[in-house]
Each structure stands twice: as C-alpha cells, then as structure tokens.
Write a structure and sequence with these properties.
Distance between the termini: 42 Å
Oligomer: single chain
Structural class: alpha/beta
Radius of gyration: 21 Å
Number of helices: 13
Order of helices and strands: HHEEHEHEHEHEHEHEHHEHEHH
Number of strands: 10
Strand order of the largest sheet: 3-10-9-8-7-6-5-4
Helix content: 25-40%
Length: 444
C-alpha cells in the first residue's frame, strides 16, 4: 500500500510540474509539444506532436487541440482518452516467461520520419486497434528503419511492431527547463520504469537513446539545464543523446527566417559546453533547393557573408551548415540530415517554384542520403514530417505515401496525389542504410 501511495504521489508531482513549451512545431510552427499525458515521461505526445505540426511561417508557443483523420477527412477532436490496458496487463505473459525473445539492435544508419508513431496513426480511427493496425502497416511498408516514440501508453506495442520489422527507436524527450532543479530525480525514475518494462519484454536493446527537438529555441531549456539533463541520462542509462537544432541556435543566420518571421539574433544559442553529452546531432532547414541551377532567392551572397564563403549552391548550403554545427559541437558525433517532406515555403526553387513538389522532395532525399554515406560517423536521415494539419496546402508525407489497402487502393487520402517515385526512393535508401553500421560515437 505504501508503494502504491508513493507511486501515486510521484505521478501527481510529475503531472503537476511538467509543462512543455515547444515553439517550434506546434499548431502554428515547425516543432511540436504536448503536456505530459497517460504517464508519458516529460516526453512529447506524439499525437499532439503530429497533429499539431505546423508551418514554419508562424512559430509560437501554445498548447493545442489535437486533430485526427477519419474516413479520409481531417477533423478537430476533443475526444476522451482511449482506455488502455496497463503495461503489466499487456506484457505479463511475456515478462513472466523465461523464454522472452530479446531483440538485438542493428546499430545501423537510420532512416526515420518525424512525428510518426501510434499516437499520430489515426487515419483508420483513434481507438487502440485502429492505431496499431495503421502504424504496423506503415512500419511493414519498408519506408523506415528507426522511429521516434514517446514513453507512454503505446510504447510496448510500438516496440513489438518495430522489433518484428527489424527496426529500432528513440524516446522523444521534451523537458521544461524550470523543472530540472525540482523534479529531475522523479523524471529519471519514471523514465527508468519504462525502460525496465522494455527490458522485461525483450525490447530494451532496440532503444537507441533520447531525442531532443530544438532544446534552446523550441523548448526554452537553458544551456546549464540541457547539460544537466543530457549528462544525467547518459550516465544513468548509457544511451545516445540526439539533438536536432534550428540553424539559428548555433549560427547568426536562421535558414528558415523567411518562414519563421524572426532572425537568428532573436533565438537562444546552444553553447559548446551544453553539447558535451550529445552523441548525435542534426539541424533542420527545409527551404533550399539542392538541384543544379536553383536560384534559391539569390541568397548566396548573404549565406557566404553570414555562414561560409564556400556556399555556392543548394548542396553546399547544407554541407557547410553541417560542418559549422559539427565544429560548434567540439567533439565527434553521429550526424543526421533532415530532408524536406512537407509543403513549406521555398526561397526559390528550380523553375521558380515556391512550394516543394515531388522532384524537390526526391532531390533532397537523394543528396542528403549520399552526403550521409560520406561521413565517418553517419547518423542517418529524418524526413520532416509525417503529418501537418495547420493549413490544407501543407501536405506532408502521410498524404503522399503510396500505402495501399488489401484491395490495392490508396489506404489514406485517396484524393491527394501520391508520390510513388519518392516512396520508392525511401524504400531504396532504407534498404541501403539498414545493413550499414553507423560507427557509433562513444563519449569518454
């Protein structure tokens, strides 16, 4: 009884103290956030992360209503939480057995999709079985080999599906800086419980580590707080810490300034000291066309002056930004690129396009995959993004994917043009990356 009361007190403290400020992909911007729900551990709710993904035109910080897609139509939803069995009910038959199969981590070069999880898998319905079926179909389609999940009610089910497909996963961590000094022990304790449940079910080795989305810009975590968080988790669990940064977090030029409406001088910077416990890094910038002859709004002089004189085209824009971030970090890390897979605005692409099309997506994917393969310590690719619901024109991967039902018809959003060439490229690169080891960085 004392243990039960203690657990209840602990969770009450957690639910009271946590809040998520994610001014990057909220209902009106590129990052995402959600309050702690259903015992998720200071992690972003994937459902809110995906359904409240928004255009980088309107970055702000807000809690939002979630959205769902039902019968091919998107509707706002204030639905009641799905009643789920507890973790022990789901896994007791496995965890109590001495013959639990333990899955090994392939430690390969990753290919994943931001905001894809069971929480965002609502196209078939928002009940548990519908989410599970949709998520499994996407996993089995072979687009990706790694996933970003939340430590919440779907974690063990998602882990099982991913394990059967030969993949691995990360836990999304979004922590309020204000809580670091006051609830760090509780935060680590609840995370540990979820990790123990993964271990009991045989899936712990498939957990790559912890994923941090724009910690300074979107989540307002101070450098000192971020160092405390990443150090504590790395020393406690020995797992990777992977952070993606807005370009304005580590340079004096924000690559998405036109879309965000603010420049790098208005963004908090990540310090080298705060990056000490990062094993994996990346940056997100989606508005530059990497194809030969792309004018990119004639931004080259500005980029040369602000970033590097070696930026002469769209490809060198990304490789120079990569070098800047790698140098700023100050130690070896596994690096990740972020290919565009949504309809955000462009500086000016081939043919004068201002919105990405399939050829733009494909060029991003091919170039960044090729660049990753040149690195001594490749991390992989994370396409951005699975779902956006802020504006009708902001179609993302979910509506473009070539997933089919048992009758051979498009499984979701049949009225939206499918990018079959792009999807074929995703599968190709996934098949290339999956057998390749990532040469993981180990921190001293």
């Amino acid at each position: 009884m004392i243990k039960k009361l203690s657990a209840m007190v602990l969770m009450s403290i957690l639910l009271f103290t946590v809040f998520v400020s994610c001014a990057g992909r909220t209902e009106n911007d590129e990052t995402s956030s959600a309050a702690l729900q259903n015992e998720s551990v200071y992690t972003q709710s994937d459902e809110q992360m995906a359904s409240s993904e928004a255009s980088s035109e309107e970055k702000n910080s807000s809690f939002v209503e979630t959205s769902s897609i039902s019968s091919g139509k998107e509707t706002s939803s204030g639905r009641k939480p799905v009643q789920m069995p507890t973790h022990k009910e789901e896994t007791s038959s496995e965890t109590e057995s001495e013959s639990v199969k333990v899955f090994n981590n392939p430690q390969n070069i990753g290919l994943m999709c931001f905001s894809l999880s069971m929480s965002s898998a609502t196209a078939y319905g928002d009940d548990f079985e519908s989410r599970k079926r949709y998520f499994k179909e996407i996993v089995d389609a072979g687009y990706f080999n790694q996933y970003i999940l939340q430590a919440g009610q779907y974690l063990l089910t998602e882990a099982e599906i991913i394990a059967e497909a030969g993949g691995s996963f990360w836990i999304m961590c979004t922590k309020s800086g204000a809580d670091v000094e006051y609830a760090l022990d509780a935060y680590v304790s609840v995370l540990e419980r979820y990790i123990n449940e993964l271990e009991e079910a045989g899936y712990k080795d498939l957990l790559n580590g912890f994923f941090w989305d724009e910690p300074r810009w979107s989540n307002r975590i101070s450098n000192t707080q971020f160092l405390t968080l990443t150090k504590t988790l790395y020393q406690k669990f020995g797992l990777r810490n992977y952070a993606v940064f807005a370009t304005g977090e580590f340079t004096n030029f924000e690559g998405n300034e036109g879309a965000l409406g603010l420049g790098a001088d208005e963004m908090q910077k990540i310090s080298r000291a705060a990056m000490q416990y990062l094993t994996d890094i990346g940056f997100d910038s989606y508005s530059v066309d990497v194809r030969e002859g792309a004018p990119n709004g004639n931004m080259y002089p500005d980029w040369q002056a602000s970033l590097s004189p070696d930026i002469v085209d769209g490809k060198s824009y990304y490789t120079e930004y990569r070098k800047i971030l790698q140098a700023h970090c100050g130690h070896k890390t596994n690096f990740w690129h972020y290919p565009s897979a949504w309809m955000g605005g462009l500086w000016g692409g081939v043919g004068g396009i201002k919105r990405p099309d399939e050829a733009f997506w494909s060029a991003h994917l091919d170039f960044m995959a090729e660049d990753i393969l040149t690195l001594e310590n490749p991390g992989g690719l994370c396409i951005y993004t699975f779902r956006r619901t802020d504006k009708d024109e902001n179609v993302a991967f979910e509506r473009r994917m070539d997933l089919k039902d048992e009758s051979g018809n498009w499984a979701v959003w049949p009225e939206v043009e499918k990018y079959e060439t792009y999807c074929a490229k995703l599968r190709k690169w996934c098949s290339v990356f999956s057998p390749k080891k990532a040469n993981l960085v180990k921190l001293s």
